[in-house]
Design brief:
six-stranded mixed beta sheet; 2 domains; globular; 43% helix; alpha/beta; Rossmann fold; 12 helices; 10 strands
């Protein structure tokens, strides 16, 4: 594989991981009290994916291409929570062991779930970037395979299978809304969806308090945010990566930001209208719809990826 995955790599990933991840529904919303879009709205329910997010796709694709001796030494990563869970799951399935570094902002429930999957959990730093530095140092010291949550081509190809899958399920989709943390999901989805339907629009959604890719696009180069100010921990790296930024610059049509309050409201909408328990990142696409700031035809068939499960619409 070249540094930048192609659609062929996503096709290969889909075949490779088919017995390790779920084919999640792409559900058309009907019979709802408070519509958020005038035209058809599809929800790609990656919140129903194994471990509760799309991350299992990328982690499984990467682990399934890791050699036996490396797996015996164990794998290590840093995460806001969801990628760590996916790595713990994939390592468990491969008979390996996982070590996951989390920032202090990660929900305690995710740390406990990681331990239940058999992972060693280390809390380090206030944000993902600080946890990531510590994980890289540990990987170097102990000779462990490090699995990055968003800038690994195998991970991006795995995440892209979600885009391939939803375009096969609902080829009428005109616009895809994708939450952005580091950019792995939107990179993979954009590669797959644009290959299958070149005129489909890809719109990224970031937290107002963590506009990593929006700020980079505005600056015309990859930037590091001075600070993070959002409760959506899985959307909160201070910096992306040149690989993801290049793909997003090439294939993503627009990036918008939403507030934490808007994501909480969207999570409540998902729970009330659809019975879907989503974390803030999983509700970000709906928050963008509710904001009324998106630019697309009102009768377009829109698909929102509900990328992670949680209790933010319930508690």
């Amino acid at each position: 594989m070249t540094n930048r995955p192609a659609f062929d790599d996503i096709e290969a990933a889909a075949d490779r991981i088919k017995d390790h991840v779920r084919r999640t529904p792409c559900l058309r919303t009907r019979f709802i009290k408070q519509p958020v879009h005038d035209g058809p709205l599809m929800l790609k329910l990656e919140c129903l994916q194994v471990t509760g997010s799309f991350k299992a796709r990328g982690a499984s694709n990467a682990l399934l291409q890791t050699d036996g001796p490396t797996l015996e030494r164990g794998v290590i990563t840093a995460s806001g929570g969801n990628h760590g869970l996916a790595v713990a799951y994939a390592a468990h399935a491969a008979g390996s062991r996982a070590t996951v570094y989390l920032p202090e902002s990660a929900p305690p429930a995710k740390a406990e779930k990681l331990r239940q999957w058999g992972a060693e959990v280390v809390i380090e730093g206030a944000v993902f970037d600080e946890a990531n530095v510590a994980a890289l140092e540990r990987a170097e010291r102990d000779g462990m395979a490090y699995l990055h949550p968003f800038n690994d081509p195998h991970v991006i190809a795995g995440q892209g299978t979600a885009g391939r899958e939803m375009m096969k399920q609902s080829p009428e989709i005109d616009v895809i809304l994708v939450a952005i943390g580091g950019g792995g999901l939107i990179s993979g989805v954009a590669i797959a969806a644009k290959a299958m339907k070149p005129d489909v629009k890809i719109i990224g959604i970031e937290a107002e308090g963590a506009p990593t890719l929006r700020a980079s696009r505005d600056a015309g180069e990859l930037v590091t945010l001075d600070q993070i100010n959002t409760a959506a921990g899985t959307l909160a790296p201070r910096r992306s990566d040149p690989l993801n930024f290049a793909i997003i610059e090439d294939l993503v049509d627009d990036i918008v930001t939403v507030s934490d309050d808007a994501m909480y409201e969207a999570a409540r909408w998902l729970w009330f209208e659809m019975g879907i328990a989503a974390e803030l990142s999983g509700a970000a696409a709906i928050a963008a719809l509710q904001s009324g700031t998106l630019n697309y035809p009102t009768d377009a068939t829109v698909a929102a990826i509900v990328c992670g499960s949680g209790r933010d619409g319930i508690d």
